[in-house]
Input
Amino acid sequence: MENCTLIDSSLEGDISITINVSDGKTSGVWTLPKDLLIHASPFFNAALNRPWNESLSKVVDLKEVRPPSFRFFVHWLYAWVNSKDGVYPRHITLAGQMTVLHAWFLGDKLGCPRFQDYALLHLEESIVQNQCKGFATVIREAYANTPPSSKLRVFLASIMLSATTVRKTPFRRRGWWVHVVDEVEDLAKDMVKLQMFSAKPFVYADNWASYLLVSSLDDYDLWD
Output
């Protein structure tokens, strides 16, 4: 059980909300300012400003959510509210690939596309730094939990396409990707589509506009 109380100094006097997070195996409890939550998330705004049980009890239960991924959301939440000129520090925390992937899923649940963009940038960094170790598991999990139109799928297919068509890629061992492409049928289809519309060797880093939901790379401090 993880317990964390975070009250921003600029929000003193604000109503505190208890968030119970559980994925069925692990759980955590956070205490956060109501104004911060409803400002960042349509989900929390609806839960805390309507005559539902959560609004009356000041307690919100998030089921099927990994506590480490919610912790990642809390880090982003405070980086966002304290950011200057809308620029978010990218390296706010270190997290594993699966934690960040499930943070992206969480952002969809909470209605926070900027948080999803933030998670995507961290996922890309983790993939590159780890030389794509564990990337096959990320692909399987992502394709099993997203619709065909998901920008997350486009991003992952783009990295795979770069790995197979460009020499200088994060991938050192190339053999494993063949099995993943064979196993995840939609991944192969997405890679073919991307290659069809590319007049030159595909480089995923040239196509960030295709992956981000609302942000641009200018919104992030990439060099801190």
In short: The beta strands are 2-5, 16-22, 27-33, 59-63, 88-89, 220-221. The radius of gyration is 19 Å.
